[in-house]
Amino acid sequence: MGLTHVAVKLRNRDSDEEFNASFLVDTGATDSMVPACELKRIGINPTGKKTYELANGELEQYEIGYAELSFMDETMISRVIFGPDNSEPILGVIALESHGLVVDPSTQTLKRLRALPLKQMA
Fold it and tell me: How many whole angstroms separate alpha carbon 25 and alpha carbon 2?
């Protein structure tokens, strides 16, 4: 299987500063992660900390904040993780689902859902 990337504009609504990058789509990640140096550069400040479980099972605490994410003609406010300065930006499943998008495993592209689900998933 290949990797899926999407162009994302991350913006600080208070200053209109922005960070543009190709984000790795990670359906195993809940929240999106951005290098902390880029979030700080555009004036996004941490609002707290959350503990996340890494792929190897280890627990790691990261600062979090909120930013405006725009991709595929949609814009939303989302929680972002202040990741290591050398980390690749990651687009998590909350941002994908809030935009009504899923990854098509056969083409490794993002597909828009016909409608957002408004029912409890089994």
Answer: 11
